[in-house]
Design brief:
By secondary structure, this protein is of the alpha+beta class. The chain has a four-stranded antiparallel sheet, covered by helices on one side. It has one domain.
Length: about 100
C-alpha cells in the first residue's frame, strides 16, 4: 500500500509531492507494476467524512492477491498510464523505476 497517493480520477483526494518534479502518483511508479495490479478507492473523496481525504493505492503483488482485491467493492483497478487530467499522456516526470526498486 502507498499512502498519500494521487487518485487519478478524483482530485478530491489529496496526495504528497517530494518536490516540483516528483509526486506520489501513477506516473512516478510507472513501469514497476503491471497496470492491472494497482488499485485505488472506488468511492469519491467526499465519502471519507474528513475535511481532508488522503489518497492511497494498494498494489497486488501476485495474481492470487489480484483476485482478492477484485472482490473488494471499495477498490478499483486503475491503468498505470492514466494521468489526473484523463488524457492518457505521459509527461517527463522521473519514474521511480529509475531511482529505486520496491521490496529491495
Amino acid at each position: 500500500m502507498i499512502d498519500d497517493f494521487q487518485v487519478p480520477y478524483d482530485n478530491g483526494f489529496r496526495w504528497d509531492k517530494y518536490d516540483d518534479e516528483r509526486e506520489i502518483c501513477l506516473r512516478y511508479i510507472d513501469g514497476i507494476f503491471e497496470a492491472q495490479s494497482i488499485y485505488c478507492p472506488a468511492y469519491p473523496a467526499y465519502k471519507e467524512g474528513h475535511k481532508v481525504a488522503l489518497g492511497y493505492c494498494v498494489i497486488a503483488t501476485s495474481k492470487e492477491l489480484q483476485k482478492v482485491l477484485n472482490k473488494i467493492e471499495l477498490l478499483k483497478s486503475v491503468e498505470a498510464s492514466t494521468t489526473r487530467f484523463g488524457d492518457g499522456q505521459k509527461d517527463d516526470m522521473p519514474s521511480a523505476a529509475n531511482e529505486f526498486r520496491f521490496g529491495v
